[in-house]
Amino acid sequence: MSAYYELDYPVAARAESSARAAFIRRTYAHLAGAVLAFVGLETALFSLVSHQDFQQFFATAFRSPITLLIFFLIFVGAGAVARMFAHTSSSPAIQYLGLALYVAVQAVIFVPLLYIAKFYVNDPNLIAQAGIMTLCVFGGLTITVLVTGKDFSFLGPILCIAGFMVFGVIIAAILFGFTLGLGFSFLMVGIASAYILYDTSNVLHHYRTDQHVGAALELFASLALLFYYILRILIALSSNRD
Questions:
Q1: The whole model's pTM is what?
Q2: Which long-range contacts (C-beta less than 8 Å, at least 24 apart) are formed by 78-86?
Q3: Can you say whether residue 147 is alpha, beta or left, with left for phi > 0 and alpha for psi between -120 and 50 degrees?
Q4: What pLDDT is attached to residue 240?
Q5: Dihedral of CA 21/27/30/36: which sign?
Q6: How far apart are CA 138 and CA 122, in angstroms?
Q7: pLDDT digits (tens, 9 = 90+) for 66-80
Q8: What is the DSSP letter of 122?
Q9: Residue 208 forms beta bridges with which residues?
Q10: Is residue 37 within 8 Å of 103, Cβ to Cβ?
């Protein structure tokens, strides 16, 4: 970290109240922009791509475990590059490129799950329900951190270990063809909630006041993870009712 950034852009917790408040506003404004961009991309994809084209794509992507694993690793790699870009100090343009890339990657990752929710579940409001539940959980956790001011950075090592374990389980599921059931989805909701606590406390305590783009990306990543598994739970419960 350069002396320039240490001097002119202090950590939010040590910044003046006005600079800290402006940083928080910018962070959540960028998070809202990322969410709107995600919704716009998904709407465009499902408007422009036909049902048949989706089926052909899934037939190609899921035709073998190795093909699916390659797709998964490409998306993981693209997400890592996007994060690196968003957290760079060298160029705001590169930061925004990282955020845009990450939103695009998430939009593609969500396509199979949204496709199932849209065409194979007998509930036209399921996606909206998942979105509302996600925003309620995210809002509650965010308010908890903002009101208490508690620093949840101690969760970092725990979440890192949990992330590697989850990554290994997903790889094993792809290679050996077993299904990650409802219990796994509930576990992931818990992990996503812990990430929201961790990321929100980092916004208050550990990010510099010029890191609003990177902070917004991390919050968006946790929000997307929460939405993905809440939607997965609702799909499973709806299927069981049918």
A1: 0.89
A2: 78/105, 79/105, 79/106, 79/221, 82/217, 83/214, 83/217, 83/218, 83/221, 86/213, 86/214, 86/217
A3: alpha
A4: 62
A5: negative
A6: 27
A7: 777 887 888 889 989
A8: S
A9: 11
A10: yes
